[in-house]
Amino acid sequence: MSVAEFFDMGGYALYVWGSFGVSALLMIIEPIMLRSHRRSVLQRISRIVRMKAEEKV
Q1: What CA–CA distances, in Å, run from 2 to 8, 9, 12, 16, 25?
Q2: Position 7 in a domain
Q3: d(CA 52, CA 19)
């Protein structure tokens, strides 16, 4: 088996490598999105805490 045959995957290369690429891309994007969402939630909580503190004063 040559390297070209390996990457051709018996005619299914587009499906196999496309699926691999999409999966890898999603595995990279997911932590970035989670970090962004976490940051926005923490900012929202901070604003709520400040508003509650101002109401008590």
Answers
A1: 10, 11, 16, 17, 27
A2: no
A3: 49
